[in-house]
Every structure is written in C-alpha cells, then in structure tokens.
Amino acid sequence: MFSYPQTIGSGTGRGWAQVSPAISYAFGILSWRALNFVIGLGRRIIEWVWQRIKALFVITARFQKGDQAYDWLMLLLAEERVWASSCDFKVVTRSSRRRWGIKQSPHALYGSPTPSSLKAGDHGSTPSRTEYVPQYRSPHLFRYKGHWFEIDCTSEREGHSRGFRGRGGHRGSQRRSVYSFRMSTLNDLVESARKLYLEFSQPHVTIRQPIQPYQEGNWSHVVTKYRRPLDSLIIEESTKTMLLDDVKEFLGSESWYTDRGIPYRRGYLLHGPPGTGKTATIYTLAGELGLEIYALTMSEGLINDAGLKALIRAVPSHAILLLEDIDCVSHSLRIEQDEAMNDPQSRPVSKSAVTLSGLLNAIDGVGTEQGRLIFCTTNHLNHLDPALLRPGRMDVKVEYKAASQAQARTLFTSFFADHTGSSLSLHNNTTKPSPESAAVAAAEVEELAHEFSSIIPPHEFIIPDLQGYLFLHRKDPQAAVNGVQEWVDAKMKERNERKQRMIAKRKKRVGVISEAMKMRK
Ligand SMILES: Nc1ncnc2c1ncn2[C@@H]1O[C@H](COP(=O)(O)OP(=O)(O)OP(=O)(O)O)[C@@H](O)[C@H]1O
To answer: Where does the BCS1 N-terminal domain lie (predicted)?
Structure first.
C-alpha cells in the first residue's frame, strides 16, 4: 500500500524549516560584508583616483595664520560671502570690520539693553554689538572670477586631520585647493585679496601682537585703530616733519643700502616721561605711511631670547617693529648686578626675560636687514646700555618732554576748533555761523589759547593732563581760561606733597636697611 511519506515529508520539511533561517542569516551576513567590501573598495578607488587627479592638476596653496597673506585671504572670503550659508558660529560681543555675509536680524546686531546692563551702568546709549563669526570647520567650495576653489582648514599641531583647531594658541593653517590648471588663477586670487586688504585697511592702523608660544613667531593677535590725523599729534612741527621725511626716505632707498652692503634697517629711539606722546607718534606715522605695527612690550617679562628672535624674524619688510619699554631689557642686567653687589638702594623695576645680548642679536639678526623700521620707546634713557644706542641700531633719537607752552596753546586751539561758532560770540545761537562771525570767534579762541598757555608752566604737565582739564570745560573756553590758574596751583601742590611723601618713605627704607646691615656686622 502506497502511503505518501507524509511523516517523512513533513519531518523533512520541519528540518528544512529549522535549517533555512540559519543559512539565510549566514547568507545575509556574507552578502552584507561583501557589499561593505565593495563599497569600501569603491570608495578607496575613487579616493585614490581623486588624489592622483589632485596631485596632477590641482594647485594647493597654504596660508599660515599670523602671516599677512592669511588676513588678505580671510578678508576676501568674508567679502565674497563664502561663509554666508555657514551653520556653525561663535557669538562675540566685540565688533570687527569684517562683513561675513551672515543674515542677522537688526536686533541681533545691536541688542537692546537688558536690565542687567543698565544696572551695570550702561544706560542704553551704546548697546553692545553681537556678531556671529562663522567657524571654519568644514571645507567650502566657492567660485571666484569663474574659477572654483575649495577652502579647507587644518591644524598643523594635530597632524593632518580635518577641521579647524585654532584653540589654545594652536596654529591654524588654512589650506586652499584650487581647481584649476593654471597658476595664474591662484596669483590672481592672492593679488585681488592683497588689493582688497590694502583698500579696506587704508583708514586704519593695524597693530599686531604676538600670541604664545612665541617661539613660533606667531603675530596673530590683531588690533585696528582709526588712523590718527597728523595734526592731532601735538609735538614740535620740525620733529614731526623730520621723522616723517626720514621714514619716507628710508623706505625709498633700498638699493642705496644694498649697493653699499649696509643692512637695510633703521632704528628710532623715542625717549621721555610717560604720556608724552611717544607711542602716539609711532601710530600716527604708521597711519600716515600705511605701515603695519608689530608691537612688543618688553616690560611684560613673558618673552625670552628665543621667542624674541623668532618674533622679530617673522616681521615682514616695510613694517614697523615697535619695542616698548626697552629699558627693561638692560635693566634686568643692572638689577642682577645690583643684587649681586648687595646694593640696598636698587629699586624694584619691571624685568624683562630678554637679555641684552638676546635683544642685540635679535635686532642685528637675519631678516632685520630687509627694510625693517625698528621703533623703540623708553622712559629711562640712562638705563640703556651704550651697545643698544650705537648708530646702526638706533639711528635717530628723539627726546619727548611734558608739554611746552606752545604745545598747550596748540592743544587749546584744536580742542575748541569746533566750538568757535557756538561757545563764544554765538553762544546759544542755533543757526549756522556766518564765515565772518566764525572768523571772529576763531580769533577769540586764539587769544584765549595764548592766555591759557601763558599760565601753564613749561614742561610740567603732559598733554593727557591738559586734555583732562579742558574736557571739564569743553563747552566753554572762557571758563577753561578762568579756572586754569587754580587748577595749576592745586596740581603743583598735590605733586609737591606726593614728592615729599616719597622722599620720606625712601629715607625710612634706607634707614631700615642700613640698620639691618649694622646689626649683621
Ligand atoms: N604730544 C601729544 N600729542 C597728542 N596726543 C598726545 C600727546 N602726548 C600724549 N598724547 C595722548 O596721551 C595718551 C598717551 O600718550 P602715549 O601713549 O603716546 O604716551 P607715551 O609717551 O608713549 O607713554 P608711555 O611712555 O607710558 O608709553 C594718548 O592717548 C595720546 O593720544
């Protein structure tokens, strides 16, 4: 009797049913792995081909943060609104002149004052500006003058991984890949960026300061100030003209120096009491001549010889290297000597980590002979080592003093120049003064300026002191003249009292030290 192998069949069917999920699972894994392998291989092949294409056809230009070209490029990219579609921002309350092209609501740009800001003394007249600064974490493709470019950012410290890592003083080097067969495209981009930067920074003076680690010669901390008109600098006209002409002549005589084998650099030493306009002179000259300032303050004591050398080497030609408080360098040696001799009268002063030989080597070193203008300032000329003052290092020396009567007069006139039509003969008159009445008022200001300056004792007050006083009477020049004698007397009395207190303090200190020395003997 034929019986259909139901049981067998059903048994076999059950077996297959048990085995097939495992097989299909294994098959699934295998095919998934195979697919992954194929995708990975495909990706690698594409990458390999892309690298070959890049190596053959793409020109890569690197821009280093801290270098001028980096700033040119950044400005051009901001102007081209390359980051307009960025989704990653740093929100800052400082204001910069860069136009990132980010759409913001008007409220975001000038935030309305908050109750806490009002409490803190901000009465809402100058609300703080918030700015959305795009972060450059991902590569950007952009088109400029018909050519495609890619901008990518990498950190040199962190190897060659992607992403911008400019935190904590890390160097951020920008790599830009140019999709073009021609070098001329790259040149064109850099030249356009340079021109744009020059045009953009014309009304400003750029001051660069170094960031740590100084050994890397990184000047990426940038401060900009509006150019100061030459007239606003109140020093002797002859000094102003001499400095300006000297710098101009130097900048135009490179071949003269190279033909004679003389290092193409020029040193200027501006010395005098604090607040007499030394730094203001350098900023004014830089603005007038369109030069950037690379500023180092020697009294901060953070920079050592190696750092100074690297920083000075990184300053480009036709720029001003400003070394402020240069006496601190020589002074560190003096103090060490004083301490060694156990001199009780040596006063504590700011000490620089830079040694005199380190400074001299840095000034004379490689790179400084390429059109470098070195401006040094000091409050203590007598603390400077003669080696530093030698011609070739310091070629021009200018002494600054507290204001002369002529300076006080110029200050008064320029201070009230805008008020000639309103504060004197046309006081309380809201209509525009006629040229005749303005001329009369100007003559009156001149007369008052003469009277004012005759009361100011020569070389006793610095310009900021006088500015502070005039500011109190900024709407009334006559009142400024009326009160000046009383102000001078009060200030002189205060100064004398302070001097007496200091003398007494020093005497006491010397007494204590000599007593201690006697006891030791
Ligand atoms: N002769 C001047 N003409 C115009 N402004 C001046 C003059 N002297 C000082 N000032 C003003 O006083 C302030 C301090 O001046 P500045 O910093 O140039 O002094 P300094 O001599 O460099 O002082 P320090 O030795 O402390 O560095 C500045 O705001 C500057 O504008």
So the answer is: 27-233
